[in-house]
Amino acid sequence: MSIELLQTIVQFILFVVRIYSIGMIIYIFMSWIPGARESIVGQYMAKLFEPYLAIFRRFIPPLGGMLDLSPIVAFIVLNLFSRGIVAIYYFIVNQFY
């Protein structure tokens, strides 16, 4: 596998994670707009983001029944995933190229 192909794969993964993060921000802000999550777009976005957010909601209950901190942890995990991909890329490049 050439270095250019590996770099392209890493850039694509980082792009997908960035787009997913932006979509998750939009989905979270939709909760502030009455009826937005019940719209067709909101239902589609729920299918994309709720499975990921549900992982964190199992371990992090809402504070006072109102404030959900699980999206913050979800963003931190996505950020750590991106950094891990970059670290693995640099490790491979330094070891084999």
Automatic annotation (TrEMBL):
Keyword Membrane carried by entry = yes
Q: Where are the transmembrane segments?
A: 12-33, 72-92
Entry GO CC: membrane
Which keywords describe this protein according to UniProt? Answer: Membrane, Transmembrane, Transmembrane helix
The record, for InterPro entries, names:
CCB3/YggT
Superkingdom, natural source: Bacteria
User: Which Pfam family name is an example for this entry?
Assistant: CCB3_YggT
Instruction: Give the record's family classification.
Output: Belongs to the YggT family.
What name is this protein filed under?
A: Membrane protein
